[in-house]
Structures are given as C-alpha cells and as structure tokens.
Amino acid sequence: MTPLLTTTKLSRSFGGLHAVRDVDFQVVPGEIRAIIGPNGAGKTTFVSLVCGRIEPSGGAIVFDGDDITGLPAFQRVRRGIAYTFQITSIFANLTAYENVALSVQRALIDRHQDRAPQKRATALHRGVLEALERTGLADRRNVLAGNLSYGHQRLLEVAMGLALKPRLLILDEPTQGLSDGEIDGFVALVRGIADETTILLIEHNMQVVMAVADRITVFNAGRILAEGGPEEIRANADVQHAYLGTPADA
Amino acid sequence: MSRDRATLPTYALHAAVILGLFLLQFVLPEYHHGVLARVMVLAVFAMGYNLLFGYTGLLSLGHAMFFSAGLYGAGLAIEHLGWSMLPAFGAGLAVGALLGLVIGLLALRTTGVAFMIVTMMFAQVFYLVTLYFADWTHGDEGFVIAQPLRQVSIGNLYFDLTQPATRYTAAWLLFSIVLIVTLLIVRSAHGRVLIAIRENEERTRMLGYDAFANKLVAVVVSAIICAAAGAAYAILFGYVGSTFASVQYSILPLLWVLLGGGATTLGPILGTLFMYYIVDITSAFTSAYLFIVGLALILLVLFFPKGVLGTIRDRWLGWLP
Fold first, then answer.
1. pLDDT tens-digit series, residues A160-182
2. Which domains does chain A have, with CATH numbers?
3. Size of interface A-B (CB pairs under 8 A)
4. Exposure string for A150-187, b = 16+ CB within 10 A, e = fewer
C-alpha cells in the first residue's frame, strides 16, 4: 500500500544535541501507529517536524505523495495533518463549543462546502456537536474550557483534532494525567476514530499502546531503535534494554 | 446554544444606542451637543483601536499615525489639491489603508513588547515627518480648513458641515456605520479567528489558520477605521495639526478602550465619553485636572479591571459582544 506519510533522513539538532537523527519512517493509511521510547528519545520533536511546528535541519517529509518539507504548519493542517498538544493547549476563555467551532470552521473552509451562510451555519453546528458527542463533552459544551477538569480538557484537545477531519491525527501523550476510567474511555475513542483516519500516537502507557496499536515504532536517542507489531516489540531485547537497562547497568 | 439566543438582545441594544445618540441631539444644550459630536468621532478612533487591541490582542502604541494619516490625507487634499470633501475623505481612508498595510507587514514580524516599541517608533517617524514638511502641514501650529471648503452638494442636496446639526448627524452616521461594521466583524468567522489568535496564537495556527495573514487584515482594517475618524475630524472640525500625530494620541485610544472595556463593541464610546467629560469637568475648577484623571483611572482599575462593560459582561451580561 502507498504510504500516507514518509520521512527520509529526517533530522533536527538543537546546538550539539541531535534530537532526531536520520529517521526513515512510513505510515500506511488506516493504521494506528504508536511511537514509544524513553524520555528525551525525540518522539515529540519527531512529530513536531511532521506537523511543522519545528523546522528540520535535514531530510524530507512526503505526505500523500507531495513533499511538504517546506510548508508552514497551517498549510500542513489544511492538507490534513492535525496535531493535539502534549501540554494541553486550548482556548481557556472560550467555551468548549467555541473551541471546537474553530476547528469545524476551518474544515468547512478547506472543503469549500456549503457556501451559503445559512447552510454553513448549520454544518458548523452539526460538526461541533458531532465532535463533542464522540468525545463525551456534549453536555459540557457551554462551559469555559479553562473551567473543565483536566481529563475533559484532554478530551477537548482530541475533539478539536477530530473536528478538523484530518487524514493523519497526531496524538501526543493524550492519556497523560488521566484516571483509569478515563483511559478506558479513551482507548474506545481511539479505536472508533481509526475507522476514518490514520493515527500517530505517542504514548507512555503500555496497556494503551498494546490495546490499540497496529504497529509500534520505538525511538531511542533520536533514532528508530525497532519497529514491528506489539508482540514483536514486547519480545525485542534492544527495547527491553533501552527501557529497563541491562543487568550490568543496575 | 447561548450565543444564538443572544443575537436578538445584541442587535436590539446596538439599535437602541444608535437611535438614542441620534435623538440626543434634539435635547442636548448647545455645548454638550458639540462635545458629543466630537466624542462620537473620537469613539470611532477608539473602535478602530479596539479591533486590534481588544479583539486581536495586539497592543499598538502607534495608532496616532493612523488617525493622523486620515487627518492629513483628507486635510492636505482639500488644502493643497483643492479636492472636495468626499474625495478628500476617500483619500484619508486610502492613506490609512496603505500605511496600515506597510506598517503591518513590518511590525507584525515582532510580538509583545517589541510590537509596542516598533509601532511607537513608526508613529514617531510619522510625527516628525509632519513637522519636517512644515511648508505644507504648518507643523505644530497646523492649519484651519476654511468654512467654504467644508460644504458639499450631492445632486440637489446641500450639506454645510460647519452647521452644528449637520455636523452632529455626520458624526453620528460615521459612528453608527463603524459600530455596525465592528459588530459584524467580531461576530463573523474572521472575528472568531482574531479572538482565537488573542487567546492562543500557536493553537490557532495548528488549527490551520494563517495567523500572520489574519493579523495583517486586522491591522489594515483597524488603520482604515482610525483613518476614517481622522479624516472626519479634519472635515468636521476644520483643524489639522501635528498634535494629533504625537504620542499622546497613541495613548488616548488605549485609555478610552481600557476604561470602557476592551473587546466590547460599546466600550469605546463609553470610555471616550467618560474620559472626555472627566477632563472637561475637572479642568474647569483646577489646573491639576490630570491628577483627578489619574485618580479616576486608578479607581477604575481597582474596581473595574476589565473596563466598565468588560466587568458588566463578566458579572451579569455574558452575551455582550
């Protein structure tokens, strides 16, 4: 299958630190790909390069057959790459509804649908409610985002990403700080989303990774250490070494 | 959804304000009649400033240049090119739009404090330019646009803008148009993006919006509105001088907006009116009137930190636009 996203020799260094180094990476459409690795392995830097928040020092990014390496972030979003922030980044002084409306408004503009104002208003309203319902936030839609609980703010992040109708949804540690109950709900949500979009998931919670990922890419020290299905990765000695250290280290 | 229900009261309130200001001219004594005409023109300046500062979150300290771009654009066209009033007003808007575009392209490369300083520096350059070309502008002293030049015939209709009633109605018309335009902008899709940029620019960009282009549009529209106020000021009150390009006139719209309530459509007129009268009343019985103005400002910041309407919106009327 033609990959949706391909990176070739993608690199980024900060001064002398090679945060991401010569990464060759591919994702095929419809896949849920988890990216794991120890702290500082370069996971967030890597997805930031993909979505355009950071410029690469070298290498190329191809999305859906087009080279997007030089495109600014907002144009990549318009092509269908959505990013949800690791550190919750919402519009705290706007309501949950208004937060999501900004995404839906964008998606409607990009798809040139429903030019008539009345139709567009209806489409906007429907799109917002749909995203809020899927994330279970519909009854909190008039609450200021800053007043939502932390777990609900994380879900709002996901709702904003979803409402963009992306072709590639990048979730950066979405379950960080969530309760066990919330995590179960989140796993179900990601499985539902996967039917219509491709997902890149950075995640530390191994239960979540094993439950949802089709394939797993392991980063260590800015490079890809291993790649494969969940069972393969679980059995991989290099991965165990990177995560747990060797007996000699202990 | 609360916003839909708010549509009716919002338009009713704005219609009431516009109607009320129109009717006030028939009951106000002569002096206050003149003051209110002036305040409405200055409130247009404040509304233009508010669009950028209140809604988009860009604090400019150089808006005197946009006001005086309109003032000089219209004033010089009448004085030296012999243009009649309406084309001169158009010239004021055009100069404001062009200046807004150029300054926007340059100043928007910066943010925060640097943006304040850069806009202030450009405004100082503009101020010095008005002094340098004193042969045309008469610098500090300024020039008066003769009364016959402030009259206009459109078809069979004849308007003399030196007449208080005509002048008031012209000021009211400009104010009403700009108020409605502001209301439509801030309730539009574009207005929502401006507010999003103010709240969280990085997030707005990651939702697919071109933050730079949106901010540039905001600067240009703000500049055009402020230039409209300046051009109207030249035509209605007949005086053009470089005081209006000085830093004082960059600070004043900021104070008016802060007083009335940033990011509220009606805050600018309220703040301008309040400030005008507080100076007017206190300066009548003491030369230390700025002391009282300062005191009033401190009290307002203490009790109405978001300005009068901003605080009212927070506490009671959440639907205020």
1. 999 999 999 999 999 888 888 88
2. 1-70+199-250 (3.40.50.300)
3. 63
4. ebbbbbbbbbbbbbbbbbbbbbbbbbeebeeebbebbe
CATH class belonging to B2-246: mainly alpha
Q: What is the ipTM of this complex?
A: 0.89
Cα separation of B52 and B139, whole Å? 29
Binary contact (B192, A105; C-beta < 8 A): yes
Partner B, chain A 230-249, Cβ-Cβ below 8 Å:
none
Contact indicator for A44, A86 with CB cutoff of 8 Å: yes
Whole-model pTM: value is 0.91
User: How far, in Å, CA of B42 to CA of B50, rounded?
Assistant: 12
Locate the domains of chain B by residue range. 2-246
How far is residue B64's CA from residue B115's CA, in Å, rounded to a whole number?
Answer: 15
Cα distance between residue A96 and residue A90, in whole Å: 9
Q: Do A77 and B207 touch (CB under 8 A)?
A: yes
Amino acid at A59: G
Q: By the CB < 8 Å criterion, does B211 face chain A? A: yes
Beta strands in B127-254 (DSSP E): 143-144, 151-154, 157-160, 239-240
Tell me, yes or no, if B195 comes closer than 8 A to chain A by beta carbon: yes
